[in-house]
Structures are given as C-alpha cells and as structure tokens.
Amino acid sequence: MGKALIIGCGGVASAAIHKCCQNSEVFTEICIASRTKAKCDALKEKLEGTTSTKITTAQVDADHVDELTALIEKEKPDVVLNLALPYQDLTIMEACLATKTHYIDTANYEPEDTAKFEYKWQWAYKERFEKAGITALLGSGFDPGVTGVFSAYAQKHYFDEIHYIDILDCNAGDHGYPFATNFNPEINIREVSAKGSYWENGSWVETEPMEIKKVYHFPEIGEKDMYLLHHEELESLALNIKGIKRIRFFMTFGQSYLTHLKCLENVGMTSIEPIEFEGKQIVPLQFLKAVLPDPSSLGPRTKGKTNIGCIFRGIKDGKERNLYIYNVCDHQECYREVGSQAVAYTTGVPAMIGAMMVMTGKWQKPGVFNVEEFDPDPFMEALNRWGLPWKTEEQPELVD
Ligand code: NDP
User: Fold this and answer.
1) Is pTM beyond 0.70 here?
2) N or C, which end of the chain has less CB nearby within 10 Å?
3) Ligand 1 centre distance from Cα of residue 162 (Å)
C-alpha cells in the first residue's frame, strides 16, 4: 500500500511502530526519524525479521523546517506521522505543506515557554492545507483521539442530540515507583499542574488544579478517585458536537502521585521558568525529567489495567438516553505484545490507525481536521481489530 515517515522514537512511537509492522499490508514501508538516531536503529533491529514492512531510519531535528523538508523530499512518504513532542507540531506541518504530504499527530501544539495547549495555532493552517490539497489529522491518540471517535460514533448511531459528555481516563497500573509519569514527564506534569477547566453552556469554567474530585466505580477496575482537568479534546468537541451543553474530562490519580507532585510544585521543581545554576541556564521541569524514571522503562514493571472512555447523555427519538463507550487495556498484555505499557499502547495503536485511515483514503480531505469530523465506523472497526476492543453500556453509573 504505502510508506509512512514516523518522527520521534519514544514510548508512543515505539508502540505505533510495532503496530505498523503488524499491519504490513498497509505499511509496506516506514522510515523512523528522530533526534537520536541510535534509538531508531535499535528499534529497527528489534523488528526486522518479524515483519515484511521495510524499515529505514534517519536523524532529524524536527525543530527545523528545512531539515524536515529535505528528509520528506528524500524519503517521499505518503504520510508523516508526528510522534515527537507537541513543540514540533508546527515545524512538521510546515514541512508537510512544502512537500504536499499528509500529516497526522496525537497532541496539539504548545509553545515551549507557555504551558498552554490550544488548537488555535494548528487550526490556523486550515486554508493552507486546503489549498495544498492535503489532509492534517490532529490528535489521533487515545485522548485526544479515540475519545473523539467514540463521540462521533455515539452521535451517528445512538443520539439525535448529545447534551453531556464526561471523558474518564483511569490508569490503575502500578509501576512500583513512588513517583513516575506514564508518558513524557515534562508534557505530563505541564498538563496536570495547570488549572482545570470544562465547557458549559457555551463558555469555559476554570477551576484550580485538582479542585474537583469525584469517585467513580470503573468497569473491570473498581473504585478510583478522579480529578477534573483541562484536556485538548474538550476544545474541538465543544465545536463539533452540535447541541452540546457540557463536556468535562477526569483523570484518576493515586494519593502518592498527588503528594509527590504537590511537594515538587512547592519547592519549584515543576517550574518552566529558566533559572541560573552554576553559571548555566536550566529549566527546573527539564531537570526533573532527567532524574525521573524514563516512561519507556516502566513497561516490564507496570501491572494492572487502564479504562478510558466517554459517558454520553442526550436524546434519541424524544427520549433521554445514556451511553458509556470504553476500552480496557492490560499493562502486562501490552508489554508482552509490543514491549510498552498500556499508556504508550493506547496512544500508539490509534496513531497507527489514524495514519492508516489517511493512507488508505478512508479519511482524506484537504484541510485540518480533528478525528470526530470523519466517519467513525472504519476507525471503530480498526480499534477492535488492532488491539483496543471497546464496549458499550447503556445504563452506566453517571458522574454527578
Ligand atoms: P517521549 O519523550 O518518550 O518521546 C519523544 C520522542 O520525540 C523522542 O524520541 C525524542 O527524541 C523525539 N524528539 C523530541 N524532540 C525532537 C526534535 N526536536 N526532533 C526530533 N525528534 C525529537 O514522548 P512520548 O512517546 O511519551 O510522547 C510522544 C507524544 O505523544 C507527545 O506529543 C505526547 O504529548 C503524545 N501523547 C498523546 C497521548 C494521547 O492520548 N493523545 C497520550 C500520551 C502521549 P530523543 O530520543 O532524542 O529525546
């Protein structure tokens, strides 16, 4: 079928690349390109001989449009799958425009010096992608990503109007460390230490970090504390799900994680303001990242399950209706299959599927789109086939 250029070779990329190699019919060729080429070469060596996908590797600094453009011109991929960090989104989109190549990512752009992620920077590319005749698919991970596909699916098959969405992200995995993050620590801590917010009746309601706590009984996991956070997909779903009155996002955290985070915040270790240390400028959060366990090393240690899904409330044929769509994933099963824990797996699988949707033309139209703007059915089918089977429950416990 075609060739994907995958940028980044961290935890999420590794899971996505394993999945591309299982799906050789679609991904006949991939090029893995990242800042540290040795990681790409090590992954290539691990996978070669287990797949008929042809794998090449390259070094690239994705902060530079000219380097990216030269790489895309040399490799001539059908799609570019961006699995580096959110800081690189715009440079990679520029290079895709310069070479007229489709673009897919899993996280929206945020400038490195302000911990504020919003779609406005990437949505501003809409007209240029339309004119170039290429597709940009934004946020094709789990959340954002599958949560948007679940929303489009609920809208298409179950509701005339969806009024309320609660997105629940539960990670009940235990890695045995007192404190570690399940994906890139810098991005993760920026996200969870920011103010919370949710969308209600046409505007944003802001909360203090972790101000709103609820307890929920998760299917196949049990009772967990969860906290309201701001999350990327709230912004696009508020626009794309017509008639929506409120959308919230909750994530579970254990007490140990929260106590450590509070302490690190209190001593200034989560700050992104550079400080002078022994004659050198350092960013405390980047230093913290350097001393924390590498998320990709958590795979063998993490036991337990994740449950991520959406609870919808709305109207069908004049009657009230509720629906919960969720996926449960087991950390150890993911590790056995692709060598990563479930957080990387649940992001890497939809990243591969998003790239497949664009590559096969099922999800292709010129412009910049979020996942819920496409037909959810082929993506939902692919989730079942490629390792993230989902369930529906028509009378779920609701979040008050
Ligand atoms: P990692 O830190 O493990 O990996 C990031 C990779 O990007 C590394 O290989 C790194 O290279 C590479 N990279 C960083 N900067 C550059 C650069 N300038 N040029 C080239 N390569 C670069 O991160 P994760 O795998 O945990 O996360 C990847 C992405 O997935 C993030 O954007 C994250 O926000 C997103 N994500 C999305 C989720 C979702 O559900 N939608 C959930 C979890 C994560 P090096 O090895 O040299 O450091």
Assistant:
1) yes
2) C
3) 33
